[in-house]
User: What shape does this take?
Amino acid sequence: MSTVTLGLLQHACSQDPAANLKKTLALTARAARQGAQIICTQELFRSQYFCQSENHDYFKLAEPIPGATTRAFQKIAKKYGCVIIASLFEKRASGLYHNTAVVIDADGTMLGVYRKMHIPDDPLYYEKFYFTPGDLGFKAWDTRFGKIGVLICWDQWYPEGARLTAMQGAEILFYPTAIGWHPKEKAEYGVNQHGAWETIQRSHAVANGCYVAAVNRIGTETPEGGDGIQFWGQSFVAGTSGQILAKGSVDQEELMLVPIDLGKVDVTRTHWPFLRDRRIDAYGDLTKRFID
Assistant: This one.
């Protein structure tokens, strides 16, 4: 089918993981009832963004995959016939944790997982303390409603990840996200920071002739006190030429339903044949850290 409706879940998260799960499941079901065919959660929706500090207690938030949460989403997918992308804190084994997205097809089958490949370590984003870098590579999945790829938050800054996913035929790139401003920096850097985030992802749509859907949270979270992070929301879907098709607000909970035409992927890639004209014979140095 050519026309597909995406469902993006943008909302705040509380300090109660059970309440966050209940809310996200309810929003997922509501999106499906309203016609969403591929539904994506925001990053690590079951908790507030705990990576603002290095605290061993937060490892208790992790869960096995498959597990109770994945089964709950599988039940919704099967009931409503929708594809679901859910972002979870995965406990793979003792001492081995990942920032992971599960991909569930419209019959409730779990197609697979993507483990976040690029792990940041910045003030209030201490993810290297919690997450082992992904070891499954970049992947794309055939679903009932199209071929999709999933990357997570910090991955969104890297054109290599988007390209390698698109090269596997992905028509839509989903980016579950948790990103915002340091409140004290917002006045000086806020506009440029958000502009860079949106621009780089729109450029992935242009360079690969595909759709991009970024799903971010809202609200200010201070799990460790201090100023915390003010998440900037503004979830969006970009078309195959990088144009903004839909965009959420900065601070409002939104269930975004965005229809897209997958037929435009082939049209765009034919008229702007970047994949055809890539000089793969000249790109070997991309596997190096730096060229001295």
In short: The domain at 3-277 is CATH 3.60.110.10 (Nitrilase/N-carbamoyl-D-aminoacid amidohydrolase). The first strand starts at residue 3 and ends at 10.
